[in-house]
Design a protein that fits this description.
Largest sheet: none
Helix content: 40-55%
Number of strands: 0
Order of helices and strands: HHHHH
Structural class: mainly alpha
Distance between the termini: 15 Å
Number of helices: 5
Length: 82
Amino acid sequence: MMRYEGTEKLADETACARVRADLKMCLLQSDCCKKERKLPRECLSRQDGSVPDECFAIRNTFFECKRSLLDNRQRFRGRKGY
């Protein structure tokens, strides 16, 4: 899996952009997208083992990051994610 850290610049500077990029790369490198030629959105809904569990963990992290944007407590605790 590709991780965006430190020196690399993403074109997307919004909140949760790094988690979104990691999720995108994880899905695009999965067998579901490579071998079966499915869209990443279709691969997220599949539970047949063609998508690694790591991608589902990143999806959960992305959800928590987006949810923390709406939570007023994030002012004190910081944004969830990486």
